[in-house]
Amino acid sequence: MRAHMIRFLIQASFAIAGILAVAFVAAPFGPTLAFFLLVFGLWMGRRVFLRLESRDRF
Question: Would you give per-residue pLDDT tens digits along the chain (58 residues)?
């Protein structure tokens, strides 16, 4: 798989987890958990992408 696809899959899985957290977790904690999942997913996707992209160039 290419780095872009892996980045997309990581970010999409964290986004789906965030949506499920809003749907199934109680009101004060669900949106907060979803926010942290989305931010962590974006950060993790970027970190993995940069690591794989730098390795693919050499």
Answer: 788 999 999 999 999 999 999 999 998 899 999 999 999 999 999 999 999 888 766 5
d(CA 10, CA 2): 13
Alpha-carbon gap, residue 52 to 34, rounded angstroms: 27
Please identify which residue in the block is written with the tokens 């979803």. 34
Locate 35 and state its tokens: 């926010």
Amino acid at residue number 58: F
Please name the amino acid found at residue 30: G
Largest CA distance in the chain: 48
pTM confidence score: 0.83
Q: How much is the CA Rg of the chain, to the nearest whole Å?
A: 14
